[in-house]
Amino acid sequence: MHSGLVASRSADQRGSRESRNGSPQLDAVSLAIIEQLQEDGRRPYAAIGKAVGLSEAAVRQRVQKLLDQGMMQIVAVTDPLTVGFRRQAMVGITVEGDVEAVADALAAMSECEYVVMTAGSFDLMVEVVCEDDDHLLDVISKRIRAIPGVRSTESFVYLKLKKQTYMWGTR
Amino acid sequence: MHSGLVASRSADQRGSRESRNGSPQLDAVSLAIIEQLQEDGRRPYAAIGKAVGLSEAAVRQRVQKLLDQGMMQIVAVTDPLTVGFRRQAMVGITVEGDVEAVADALAAMSECEYVVMTAGSFDLMVEVVCEDDDHLLDVISKRIRAIPGVRSTESFVYLKLKKQTYMWGTR
DNA sequence: GTCAGAGCTACGAAATCCGCAGGGTGTGAA
DNA sequence: TTCACACCCTGCGGATTTCGTAGCTCTGAC
């Protein structure tokens, strides 16, 4: 098990650098590591090291830090429609008042897989994953619209997922 | 120790079964494996096997098949905004004529990370990842609007990504 | 100069991955 | 019924990978 609670505080190190909004910026090597893991999340550290010019241990330490910092996650992704979730929808939301507070409330809902603040005729866009129509109806009309500050919602029920990629950079 | 599980699974021995639309459906064990890998894409096969009641080799074979069939991918995911892509947007598209043909054309564009057919006031929703404003402008006004059948587009530029999860099932 | 922190390499031990042989259980044809 | 076949699982070596750690270098602060 490697569940160590390593309290690695984000200091200014050679691998990353602070930008103006506080989120650490990645250097070229870490970017190359991420590209490798975007192609195959289980690729061995030694193979990654050979591709980016680092030793196996160095790659391992960088990956562990990226995971600890929450800047990257290595996960299995599927099309939810093939995994038993029959109803998915993108919901556009307009807000009066504190947008970020509404976003936090949405992020706390397990059915909301994806929450993003946007510019345009919606203030927020949320991807909702539900088991069936009743569940979706409940989430949208009861739970989301009940959040203080939500002015209106518009739903776009998914009919078919055509593409899903995680390989920016490799192009 | 495995007799009970095997017995309860005897009716549905195969890992996958054809459904009405031709896409293979997953059984409970493969779902459990996916859940494990949604928590940690690098979790060892033996640990997964212990959690779902299968041997290490069986888990490995099932995972390999899920990957080969394209039903699951194990990848690193990040917030593109922290990885050098400054501009991201969700684009809603209305189509006249063959929606699927337009969707295929969009899926062929490397900047389109996510393409989904929807019901509602948009026929398609597309997530676009770009390096800067010029790039985004080029993609939306020149490339997307040039696709035959695209009637109109509406863009929602990302300001901040608040949540990104891949853990349906584990709730 | 000296010290502390961060990152890298090297390396042995432990754990994991991999390929393959063998066996059990359904299914469908004769 | 009986047989052949497909499918999936288990077990087991050997190869590979992961893991933890010690030692080195570089940089910035004092």
TrEMBL record, chains A, B:
One CC-aspect GO term: cytosol
Gene3D superfamilies assigned: 3.30.70.920, Winged helix-like DNA-binding domain superfamily/Winged helix DNA-binding domain (1.10.10.10)
Record field: compositional bias (Basic and acidic residues): 11-20
Record-linked InterPro entries: AsnC-type_HTH_dom, Dimeric_a/b-barrel, PF0864-like_C, Tscrpt_reg_AsnC-like, Tscrpt_reg_HTH_AsnC-type_CS, WH-like_DNA-bd_sf, WH_DNA-bd_sf
PROSITE patterns the record matches: HTH_ASNC_1, HTH_ASNC_2
Name recorded for this polypeptide: AsnC family transcriptional regulator
Xref: SUPFAM superfamilies: Dimeric alpha+beta barrel, Winged helix' DNA-binding domain
Annotated keywords: DNA-binding, Transcription, Transcription regulation
Keyword Nuclease: no
GO molecular function: sequence-specific DNA binding
Pfam assignment, any one: AsnC_trans_reg_3
GO biological process, one term: response to amino acid
Region (Disordered): 1-24
Domain HTH asnC-type, first and last residues per copy: 26-86
Top-rank lineage group of the source organism: Bacteria
